[in-house]
Amino acid sequence: xxxxxxxxxxxxxxxxxxxxxxxxxxxxxxxxxxxxxxxxxxxxxxxxxxxxxxxxxxxxxxxxxxxxxxxxxxxxxxxxxxxxxxxxxxxxxxxxxxxxxxxxxxxxxxxxxxxxxxxxxxxxxxxxxxxxxxxxxxxxxxxxxxxxxxxxxxxxxxxxxxxxxxxxxxxxxxxxxxxxxxxxxxxxx
Length: 189
Prior knowledge:
Blueprint: H1 3-9, H2 23-34, E1 45-50, H3 52-71, H4 79-88, E2 91-97, H5 108-131, E3 135-139, H6 146-153, E4 158-166
Antiparallel strand pairs: 1-2, 2-4, 3-4
Helix pairs in contact: 2-5, 3-4, 3-6
Protein backbone atom coordinates (compact mmCIF):
# COMPACT_ATOMS: atom_id res chain seq x y z
CA UNK A 1 0.00 0.00 0.00
CA UNK A 2 1.24 3.46 -0.89
CA UNK A 3 2.14 5.31 2.34
CA UNK A 4 0.72 8.69 1.36
CA UNK A 5 -2.52 7.02 0.28
CA UNK A 6 -2.71 5.04 3.54
CA UNK A 7 -2.20 8.17 5.62
CA UNK A 8 -4.78 10.06 3.58
CA UNK A 9 -7.43 7.30 3.61
CA UNK A 10 -7.15 6.12 7.23
CA UNK A 11 -10.15 7.14 9.35
CA UNK A 12 -11.19 6.89 12.98
CA UNK A 13 -14.12 4.48 13.24
CA UNK A 14 -16.69 4.53 16.00
CA UNK A 15 -19.05 1.80 14.77
CA UNK A 16 -18.02 -1.81 14.22
CA UNK A 17 -19.52 -5.05 12.95
CA UNK A 18 -19.51 -8.19 15.11
CA UNK A 19 -16.89 -9.79 12.84
CA UNK A 20 -13.79 -10.73 14.84
CA UNK A 21 -10.20 -10.20 13.82
CA UNK A 22 -7.68 -12.97 14.40
CA UNK A 23 -5.06 -13.00 17.12
CA UNK A 24 -2.45 -13.38 14.37
CA UNK A 25 -3.62 -10.13 12.74
CA UNK A 26 -3.58 -8.33 16.08
CA UNK A 27 -0.03 -9.49 16.77
CA UNK A 28 1.14 -8.42 13.30
CA UNK A 29 -0.39 -4.99 13.89
CA UNK A 30 1.28 -4.68 17.31
CA UNK A 31 4.61 -5.77 15.81
CA UNK A 32 4.35 -2.74 13.52
CA UNK A 33 3.86 -0.60 16.61
CA UNK A 34 7.08 -1.98 18.09
CA UNK A 35 8.97 -0.69 15.04
CA UNK A 36 8.16 2.93 15.89
CA UNK A 37 11.02 5.28 16.64
CA UNK A 38 11.51 6.23 20.26
CA UNK A 39 13.69 8.75 22.02
CA UNK A 40 16.95 7.12 23.13
CA UNK A 41 15.40 3.84 21.92
CA UNK A 42 13.58 3.59 25.25
CA UNK A 43 10.51 1.93 23.70
CA UNK A 44 8.38 3.12 26.63
CA UNK A 45 5.12 1.52 25.48
CA UNK A 46 3.38 -1.70 26.35
CA UNK A 47 -0.12 -2.96 25.74
CA UNK A 48 -2.81 -4.70 27.73
CA UNK A 49 -5.20 -6.70 25.58
CA UNK A 50 -8.64 -6.61 27.18
CA UNK A 51 -10.52 -9.80 26.46
CA UNK A 52 -14.33 -9.86 26.60
CA UNK A 53 -14.55 -10.18 30.40
CA UNK A 54 -12.05 -7.42 31.17
CA UNK A 55 -13.58 -5.23 28.47
CA UNK A 56 -17.04 -5.59 30.06
CA UNK A 57 -15.70 -4.69 33.49
CA UNK A 58 -13.94 -1.63 32.07
CA UNK A 59 -17.17 -0.65 30.29
CA UNK A 60 -19.00 -0.79 33.63
CA UNK A 61 -16.36 1.45 35.18
CA UNK A 62 -16.62 3.93 32.30
CA UNK A 63 -20.42 4.04 32.54
CA UNK A 64 -20.19 4.71 36.29
CA UNK A 65 -17.63 7.45 35.59
CA UNK A 66 -20.02 9.09 33.11
CA UNK A 67 -22.79 9.03 35.74
CA UNK A 68 -20.47 10.39 38.44
CA UNK A 69 -19.13 13.24 36.29
CA UNK A 70 -22.62 14.10 35.07
CA UNK A 71 -23.94 14.30 38.65
CA UNK A 72 -21.03 16.64 39.48
CA UNK A 73 -21.91 18.78 36.42
CA UNK A 74 -18.48 18.03 34.94
CA UNK A 75 -17.73 17.40 31.30
CA UNK A 76 -17.61 13.85 30.00
CA UNK A 77 -16.27 14.84 26.59
CA UNK A 78 -16.84 12.11 24.04
CA UNK A 79 -16.60 9.37 26.68
CA UNK A 80 -20.14 8.06 25.94
CA UNK A 81 -19.26 7.66 22.24
CA UNK A 82 -15.95 6.01 23.08
CA UNK A 83 -17.70 3.67 25.52
CA UNK A 84 -20.10 2.54 22.80
CA UNK A 85 -17.18 1.99 20.42
CA UNK A 86 -15.33 -0.13 22.96
CA UNK A 87 -18.46 -2.21 23.52
CA UNK A 88 -18.77 -3.27 19.87
CA UNK A 89 -15.07 -3.57 19.05
CA UNK A 90 -13.25 -6.79 18.26
CA UNK A 91 -10.17 -5.83 20.27
CA UNK A 92 -9.57 -3.18 22.93
CA UNK A 93 -6.02 -2.36 23.94
CA UNK A 94 -4.78 -0.22 26.78
CA UNK A 95 -1.48 1.54 26.05
CA UNK A 96 0.84 2.25 28.97
CA UNK A 97 4.03 4.21 29.61
CA UNK A 98 6.42 1.76 31.23
CA UNK A 99 8.73 4.36 32.78
CA UNK A 100 6.82 7.35 34.16
CA UNK A 101 6.12 5.88 37.60
CA UNK A 102 9.33 3.87 37.93
CA UNK A 103 12.34 6.12 37.37
CA UNK A 104 13.45 8.23 40.31
CA UNK A 105 14.84 10.97 38.04
CA UNK A 106 11.87 11.00 35.66
CA UNK A 107 11.34 14.58 34.53
CA UNK A 108 9.18 16.66 32.21
CA UNK A 109 11.57 16.34 29.26
CA UNK A 110 11.82 12.57 29.55
CA UNK A 111 8.02 12.34 29.91
CA UNK A 112 7.48 14.41 26.75
CA UNK A 113 9.91 12.24 24.79
CA UNK A 114 8.23 9.05 26.04
CA UNK A 115 4.71 10.30 25.26
CA UNK A 116 5.78 11.34 21.75
CA UNK A 117 7.36 7.92 21.26
CA UNK A 118 4.16 6.21 22.37
CA UNK A 119 2.22 8.39 19.93
CA UNK A 120 4.49 7.21 17.12
CA UNK A 121 3.89 3.61 18.19
CA UNK A 122 0.12 4.12 18.15
CA UNK A 123 0.28 5.76 14.71
CA UNK A 124 2.18 2.73 13.38
CA UNK A 125 -0.55 0.49 14.83
CA UNK A 126 -3.29 2.53 13.16
CA UNK A 127 -1.57 2.47 9.77
CA UNK A 128 -0.72 -1.24 9.99
CA UNK A 129 -4.35 -2.02 10.82
CA UNK A 130 -5.52 0.15 7.92
CA UNK A 131 -3.25 -1.77 5.56
CA UNK A 132 -5.10 -4.96 6.60
CA UNK A 133 -8.57 -3.42 6.16
CA UNK A 134 -9.01 -3.33 9.93
CA UNK A 135 -10.42 -0.14 11.35
CA UNK A 136 -9.29 1.64 14.50
CA UNK A 137 -10.01 4.33 17.02
CA UNK A 138 -7.37 5.98 19.19
CA UNK A 139 -9.08 7.15 22.38
CA UNK A 140 -8.00 9.11 25.40
CA UNK A 141 -11.45 9.49 27.00
CA UNK A 142 -10.62 6.46 29.11
CA UNK A 143 -8.22 8.70 31.05
CA UNK A 144 -11.27 10.04 32.92
CA UNK A 145 -11.15 6.68 34.72
CA UNK A 146 -7.41 6.01 34.74
CA UNK A 147 -7.23 5.24 38.47
CA UNK A 148 -10.20 2.88 38.30
CA UNK A 149 -8.88 1.08 35.20
CA UNK A 150 -5.44 0.70 36.76
CA UNK A 151 -7.06 -0.72 39.88
CA UNK A 152 -8.88 -3.30 37.72
CA UNK A 153 -5.75 -4.29 35.82
CA UNK A 154 -3.47 -4.15 38.84
CA UNK A 155 -1.14 -1.86 36.92
CA UNK A 156 0.49 1.19 38.50
CA UNK A 157 2.00 2.62 35.33
CA UNK A 158 0.72 5.65 33.45
CA UNK A 159 -2.22 4.85 31.18
CA UNK A 160 -1.69 6.86 27.99
CA UNK A 161 -4.48 5.80 25.62
CA UNK A 162 -6.76 3.09 24.38
CA UNK A 163 -6.83 1.64 20.88
CA UNK A 164 -9.87 -0.07 19.42
CA UNK A 165 -9.51 -2.51 16.53
CA UNK A 166 -12.32 -4.07 14.53
CA UNK A 167 -14.14 -4.28 11.25
CA UNK A 168 -15.83 -0.96 10.70
CA UNK A 169 -19.56 -0.85 10.10
CA UNK A 170 -19.10 2.01 7.62
CA UNK A 171 -16.58 2.46 4.83
CA UNK A 172 -17.74 5.93 3.76
CA UNK A 173 -16.43 8.02 6.65
CA UNK A 174 -15.53 11.42 5.25
CA UNK A 175 -12.17 12.99 5.87
CA UNK A 176 -12.35 15.47 8.72
CA UNK A 177 -11.26 19.02 7.94
CA UNK A 178 -7.61 19.87 8.27
CA UNK A 179 -6.03 23.27 8.72
CA UNK A 180 -3.92 24.19 5.70
CA UNK A 181 -0.14 23.89 6.00
CA UNK A 182 0.32 27.61 5.41
CA UNK A 183 -1.49 28.19 8.71
CA UNK A 184 0.64 25.64 10.57
CA UNK A 185 4.14 26.43 9.28
CA UNK A 186 6.22 29.25 10.75
CA UNK A 187 9.27 30.13 8.69
CA UNK A 188 12.28 31.74 10.30
CA UNK A 189 15.57 33.05 8.93
